[in-house]
Structure prediction request, 646 residues.
Amino acid sequence: MRAWHFTEMPYPHYPQDEPATRINLPNKHFDPKIGAELYNRYFDEHMIADQLGLDIMLNEHHQTPSCIDTCAPLSAAILARQTKQARICVLGNPIGHRNDPIRVAEEMAMIDCISRGRLECGFVRGVPYEVYAANTNPTQTGERLWDGVDLVIKAWAPTEAPFNYEGRFWHRRSVNVWPRPYQTPHPQIWITGSSDIETTKRVAERGWVFANFLLPFAKVKPLFDAYRASFVEHGLPGGGGLAYMPLVHTADSEAEADKGAEELRWYLTAPRAEPHFRNPPGYMPVAANVAAIRQAETGGGRVARNASLDQLREQGILICGTPDSVAKQIKRFYDHVGGFDHLLMMDHAGFMNHERTVRAMTLFAREVYPQIKDLPRTTPLRVAPAAAE
Amino acid sequence: MAREELVAVGDAEIEVLRRGAGQPLLLLPGEDMLEADSAFVAGLAERFEVVLPSPPGFGRSTRPDWLSAPGDIAYLCLSLMERLALESVPVIGCSLGGWIAVEMAVRNAARCSRLVLIDPYGVKLGGPTTRDFVDIWQLSPEKVAALKWHDPEHGKRDTATLSDEQLGRMARNHESFARFSWEPYLHNPKLKHLLYRIGVPTLMLWGEQDGIASPDYGRGYAQLIPGATTTAIADAGHYPHLEQPEAVLRRVTEFLG
Prediction:
């Protein structure tokens, strides 16, 4: 089991009475001086994670104070040079929104070389709000993701001569990416998913890592099972693995842990988006939209925003407590979902200060990590009849 | 003759509905697909055989993957007219259907005897930071309805009374509308430069209270179409033919003679 430090790099210092934060919060509320302090502080914490033996995950969002890392490759480039041992996971490149997969291939290859092979390269379709900032046609985000990843992988491979690419979304007359990635054949690919079993299977087929974020046990298990089953069906390609992200806070006492957990909960409650931004046309399949209309008719559909800490802990979305308690909760989650390989820890959010963040990371690294490090990695699940002896 | 059929056109299957009897008239519906059973179409059906194709991705029509804009749909609609032997017939296009009708007319106006455009999209008249159309994708459905309808009651649909199949079709219409008009938003940048090719008498109708695209926009659009005349319809929003069917029918019948 590997453990990853992660913060969305929030800028929480905006007027709390604004009706929306994602997409529409006017950027006049961003104070560059505060922003400069925050960026530097977050990079300091990434350096500490490196020194503590944790790996580092980065992501990006746009037009939102909940995440001012708008360019994960830039952050990854800084850390590639400044950290010494951490693996650096960009999770991920919103490749369908970037409009230039070749540029992404170049950026990732450069980071992989500078870090001497410490890059883990994730690709994401992007959450629904992202289409408004990127202006990508929301009816094609999935296709753009898969076409984009395929093109990046092709571009990373050694060429004898430039190749042309005239696909559905992008056209290039001469592709010949310099540099190539440090790792052979290329960095491990990661893909995220939250409900679609077909995506999960496709990720397993290719031996890539499948990751999901902040879902309850009950929803994680079928996805992870589908991944493991597909792994068997496709002859167990190398690499791969499963990653899960809960909110994680380790503290000296249960009371302190609850305080920290409350601060992490900011991520679930503070960033708001108007409802239609959460469901752009064509982002969800037709059947899912019909189900959502039916649910609205009966007044259902309110999700875990208002869940208590206990409820979040019960579902596995939140892991918090003293070191032994945290280790126990991780093992419980591990057993519930049939095992996983990467614990992506959202261990900072909202207003949590530097001292609390670093104390929690330190306690985790020294007292929790040794207890979970040797949990066995994802094993194939033998459910396919063809695989039975 | 079948009142509903699927017609193969190129690699698409286009749903075609028919209403009434008489001289044929092609009516291209708006993106909400509310025309088929409207008083407006019932009124037209007293004099014409109204032929209503559902654009690809709407109703029961398939949506081949290569289609990305109303200009692509125009080719299929022209082929459909050929298949149905519709020659030199009046064409009425509403909203998205109006945009498709304009795209057809600049490609081949010969199939069309007269053109009626009801609050069509299709061209951009303002500068880069001017919104010619309200961005409906950044507003709640309630706000969009308030802008679209003079009387927002007209836009309300009780989803509980609809079957899953009907709801699914609504959701798919919505998705297809985004597929074809997300970017460039509700216009084809080249279309403005091709409007000179429309050589048939054209009537532009505009709802005075259209909150999606203003009557001024409509007048500006009409000025680019040779000889087009514009009429504003009072007490009507983006769908004047649905909110004021009698006034629109009167104007349309006068125009079609």
About this structure: Chain A touches chain B through 21 residues (CB under 8 Å). Residues 32-52 of chain A form the longest helix (21 residues).
